[in-house]
TrEMBL record, chain A:
It comes from Methylobacterium nonmethylotrophicum. Gene3D superfamilies: Periplasmic binding protein-like II (3.40.190.10). InterPro entries: Bact_solute-bind_prot3, SBP_3_CS, Solute-binding_3/MltF_N. PROSITE patterns: SBP_BACTERIAL_3. SUPFAM superfamilies: Periplasmic binding protein-like II. Pfam families: SBP_bac_3. This is Amino acid ABC transporter substrate-binding protein. Keywords: Signal, Transport. GO terms for biological process: amino acid transport. The keyword Transferase does not apply. Belongs to the bacterial solute-binding protein 3 family. Residues 35-264 form the Solute-binding protein family 3/N-terminal domain. Residues 1-23 form the signal peptide. The keyword Transport applies.
Automatic annotation (TrEMBL), chain B:
Residues 1-11 have a biased composition (Basic residues). GO terms for biological process: amino acid transport; transmembrane transport. Residues 1-31 are annotated as: Disordered. It comes from the Bacteria. PANTHER family: AMINO-ACID ABC TRANSPORTER PERMEASE PROTEIN YHDX-RELATED (PTHR30614:SF37), MEMBRANE COMPONENT OF AMINO ACID ABC TRANSPORTER (PTHR30614). It comes from Methylobacterium nonmethylotrophicum. It holds the Pfam family BPD_transp_1. It is found in: Cell membrane. The lineage of its organism: Bacteria, Pseudomonadati, Pseudomonadota, Alphaproteobacteria, Hyphomicrobiales. Keywords: Amino-acid transport, Membrane, Transmembrane, Transmembrane helix, Transport. This is Amino acid ABC transporter permease.
Length: 340, 418
């Protein structure tokens, strides 16, 4: 009888607890447990990948570090939880992670039916194809009758079906659960083409048995705005995520870098810079953080340009151009609303 | 049932629940219902049932409430929505543009059932062969069978599947330099390509002949059994059956060809830009999964079969030999039928294991129920609770149906004792 009572109590406790964690507010629960749980890519060069020492690098990984900097003034207070494309939304919905920062496409159905919010876009991307050079293919339009490897549970899988249907081309899809298996199957010759977001193509090509034997076709067949996702219904947390990205954009625009931020704090008379760095106004406090929140982000992680170049741009093996990810003032799409 | 009053006097006694006279007659003493073991037992069971019910009710209610609060879509309406993705190997027709998530579910289900059925048939044949071989008097045969069993049942199935898949991919040529057998059979990394037989519309006599052949064979077998029971004479069931099942369609084919109808056209695979087109394709994922499941489960079935045969008393074999039966008929007619009583229950478990293990298809990209439904559909719709619940219900149903069928069979072969 005792065991029955214990089992009952445990069952009730477990079901009731699940409800309580959500009501408390994500920021408070993060502060209480002392670290941020960040759902990251299990291994995509430039976006989220652990090295041999278990140290994570990447654009999406650095975004979580920026949040930890803003909240704790300590970039080590992040725990990265690698999630496959297939498992990522369930992990976020169930509260296993506080934020999903793993090159996830913002689409309407995900926004409206998954109980998620996409507060910002930290990388504008589009889907492309990679093929073996020896096939002699120069355009995706020539892929009639090809086998295409793709990762399941992605927008990629849907765009692929749309593209071949719209162009009246036949194809055979071979879908795998993880990015790793997908690319291995392509590399070993199971498929003629491999498809994912263009940034991912350049990243995966580095892992090919002979990277130079593969080419990326020129067609970009979709819009893939990639960004962090959070659970819907916690406006404060969504605001923190959104403004963390905007702070990094505004810092780039104002010329604040990791190197000069300390000097800027002391000597800058520019009111924009003073508001960003928290020496004027109390914007950080209104967000639920401290006034020097953006100073911490820039000091510990860097502005958007620094993070971009270090992980996917000229400072990385991927060498991706800024392109549409340049600031609005330089002809790109990245636009940080004013901090004021 | 009326009790004999001379033996038990309880019914005549006035009810005295608390004060029993010291010289109470024999029979169970009257006790308070609180201490009656039967009532207590029933009460505990009802309480446990209530507790389970309450926990389930709270859990379901809580999940629904949490989903509502988290603004996650719920309900089963998504099954009617257009899927929008493609699946490469399907038993039933599927198209991204028009098919629904419900159809995607059926695609996964039929693929799972196909692998399970083919796997069970092949594993049974291989398992019985290896199991009998383990008891062979021939040293080489016996040792080979032992090595097979010990190696294959002790390596995790997932590793074996990856081995078959990777081995197939790595050792075969690319699509453009396929191994070719003549001009009609090709083997490459994309699978095995065979000519596809297409039945002409006016060749209905062919399948009809096949059906008549099968029905005729069954009728002849029933007749042969009656004959044997009556006279002890054995009729050549195998030869007659083969003649009926193969001979009749061949005859029909010949007649059709004579009157100028080509009954079967062959669709040959031809080389396209990337892949071979047309014909029939066996995908490497499918082959790897069937081979992996078959050889793994067959190792267990072999042990079940060996145990069953060894459970039959040696005297049975000796008696059969003394009556002049050859070793073959001794095994087939005396030992195996008795061994089946021991074999069938654990064999059922192996069938269920094979069916459930087919969900490891997810590791090698074969679109089974778990891969298509719990992978793609779950992720595209985000309705984890519904999708997981449906999938669990499906595996439960498949397993229960298999177990039920095997139990019916077991009842037939079980020892009927007087």
């Amino acid at each position: 009888m005792k065991t029955i009572v214990a089992a009952l109590a445990f069952g009730l406790g477990a079901t009731l607890l699940a409800g309580a964690a959500q009501a408390q507010g994500t920021l408070n629960s993060i502060k209480q447990k002392g670290y941020l749980s960040c759902g990251s890519n299990p291994g995509l060069a430039g976006f989220g990948v652990p090295d041999a020492q278990g140290r994570w690098t990447g654009l999406d990984v650095d975004f979580c570090r920026a949040l930890a900097a803003a909240i704790f003034n300590d970039v080590t207070k992040v725990r990265f939880i690698p999630l496959s494309a297939k498992d990522r939304f369930t992990a976020l919905q169930s509260g296993e992670v506080d934020i999903l920062s793993r090159n996830t496409t913002w689409s309407m159905s995900r926004d409206t039916t998954l109980g998620l919010d996409f507060p910002a876009v930290n990388f504008y991307d589009g889907q492309g194809f990679m093929v073996k050079k020896k096939l002699g293919v120069t355009s995706a339009k020539q892929l009639d009758g090809a086998s295409v490897c793709t990762q399941q549970g992605t927008t990629t899988e849907l765009n692929l079906a749309d593209y071949f249907r719209a162009n009246k081309l036949k194809y055979e899809v071979v879908a795998f659960a993880s990015a790793d298996e997908t690319f291995k199957a392509y590399d070993s010759g199971r498929c003629d083409a491999f498809t994912t977001d263009a940034s991912g193509l350049y990243a995966e090509r580095l892992r090919a048995s002979a990277p130079d034997d593969n080419i990326v076709l020129p067609e970009i067949i979709s819009k893939e705005p990639l960004g962090p996702a959070v659970r819907q219904g916690d406006a404060q947390w969504a605001d923190i995520v959104r403004w963390t990205h905007y702070a990094m954009l505004n810092a780039e625009e104002a010329g604040i870098t990791q190197a000069n931020v300390d000097q800027m704090v002391k000597s800058s008379d520019n009111p924009d810079v003073k508001r960003i760095l928290g020496t004027e106004g109390k914007y950080g406090a209104d967000l639920g953080l401290t006034n020097d929140w953006a100073y911490r982000i820039i000091k510990l992680v860097g502005n958007y340009a620094e993070v971009f170049e270090r992980n996917v741009g000229q400072g990385s093996p991927l060498k991706i151009q800024r392109g549409v990810n340049a600031l609005w003032s330089k002809g790109g799409l990245q636009y940080g609303p004013p901090i004021r | 049932m009326p009790r004999a009053p001379s033996l038990h006097h309880r019914r005549e006694q006035p009810p005295l629940p608390t004060q029993l006279p010291a010289d109470a007659p024999s029979g169970p003493p009257r006790v308070s219902p609180l201490y009656d073991p039967r009532i207590r037992g029933a009460a505990y069971q009802i309480l446990l049932l209530l507790a389970v019910g309450v926990v389930a009710w709270i859990a379901i209610g809580n999940a629904a409430e949490n989903l509502r609060n988290a603004r996650v879509a719920s309900g089963f309406g998504f099954l009617g929505n257009t899927a929008g993705f493609d699946v490469n190997q399907t038993v039933i027709p599927f198209a991204a543009a028009t098919s629904t998530y419900g159809t995607a579910f059926l695609v996964g289900l039929t693929n799972t059932l196909m692998v399970a059925v083919i796997g069970i048939v092949l594993a049974t044949i291989l398992g019985f062969t290896v199991g009998v071989a383990r008891l062979s008097p021939n040293w080489i045969v016996r040792t080979l069978a032992t090595v097979y069993v010990e190696v294959l049942r002790n390596i995790p199935l997932l590793l074996q599947l990856l081995f078959w898949y990777v081995a197939v991919l790595a050792s075969l040529p690319a699509a453009r330099d396929s191994y070719a057998l003549g001009t009609s059979v090709f083997l490459n990394q994309r699978g095995l390509y065979l000519p596809k037989p297409l039945l002409a519309a006016d060749a209905w006599a062919l399948p009809l002949a096949l059906v008549i052949g099968i029905v005729g064979t069954l009728a002849f077998r029933a007749h042969a059994r009656r004959e044997q029971a009556r006279t002890g004479r054995r009729l050549p069931v195998l030869a007659v059956g083969l003649a009926l099942i193969l001979g009749l369609p061949l005859l029909a084919y010949g007649v059709l060809a004579l009157i100028g109808i080509a009954p079967v056209a062959l669709d040959f695979p031809v080389k396209g830009t990337f892949n071979l087109r047309g014909g029939m394709q066996l995908y490497p994922e499918f082959v790897a999964l069937v081979v992996g499941l078959t050889v793994y489960t067959a190792a267990f079935i072999a042990e079940v079969v060996r145990a069953g045969i060894q459970a039959v008393n040696k005297g049975q074999t000796e008696a059969a030999r003394a009556l002049g039966l050859q070793p073959g008929p001794t095994m087939r007619l005396v030992v195996i039928p008795q061994a089946m009583r021991v074999i069938v229950p654990p064999l059922t478990s192996q069938y269920l294991n094979l069916t459930k293990n087919s969900s490891l298809a997810v590791a090698i990209g074969y679109p089974d129920l778990v891969q298509v439904f719990m992978g793609t559909v779950l992720n595209q719709t985000g309705q984890a609770v519904e999708v997981v619940a449906i999938t669990m219900a499906v595996y439960l149903t498949i397993s229960l149906v298999t177990a039920f069928a095997m139990n019916l069979y077991n009842r037939r072969v079980a020892l009927i004792e007087r």
